[in-house]
Automatic annotation (TrEMBL):
The keyword Transmembrane applies. GO terms for molecular function: S-adenosylmethionine-dependent methyltransferase activity. It comes from Crossiella cryophila. The chain crosses the membrane at residues 20-39, 45-66. GO terms for biological process: methylation. This is SAM-dependent methyltransferase. Residues 92-200 form the Methyltransferase type domain. Pfam families: Methyltransf_11 (PF08241).
Amino acid sequence: MSARGSIIRQPDYGLDAPPVVYVFLVVAVFGAVALGLGVHFSSLLIDAVGVLVLLVGVAFAAAMAYSSRRGKILLRDRIFDEIQFRGDEDILDLGCGRGLMLLGAVVRATRGSGTGIDLWRNQDQGGSSRENCLENARRLGVSERVRLVDGDMSDLPFADGSYDLITASLAIHNISDRERRAATFREIFRVLRPGGRFVVVDFAKTAEYAEDAQRAGLVEVRRSGVQVLMFPLVRVVQGVRPAA
């Protein structure tokens, strides 16, 4: 049976940025209240403002929910479809959360292994934890090929040249310090094997990432156009470590 055919249950990759989604829902509630007041006081202006605020709140919350539940999976699969997996890759996912990128790659690398590193912060992703990531790995039938590490992506606890593919999705922007973000790309270069590839998905700072990747010595660096399958809208930055 193929790796994709061995799924026990569908994984749950959680809701991205739950506090932001909740803010938009609160905005929608305020809009509904304003609409009710407009009807009560027969005010077309209050009605119009209420409708606008309600629609904005609902639309943004719905867009983020769709992105979390469906859009990010579609984009991940589109990205990985363009990569020619040998099947024996060692994969590292930075800020792995519940395992979206990590497990998607391990499923394709049927003889390979995957390592996820994270600080496990729930404000970045709902239910982000080692336990939930491992549960998703079990659901996909790949738990024996996955290990998780607590750690900082800007100071990786791995030997030089350990991985064939390094991924990160909605993770690097959470590093507030500019130098530590640049250090992350130096670490990506260090732990990639010659000829290895990195893929970063994010909604912010992607031009900076491309520059930092090139400064770190990575080549064939490219930054995609806006990808509409996720919200906020994202770009993909990719590149490789030069072959020895």
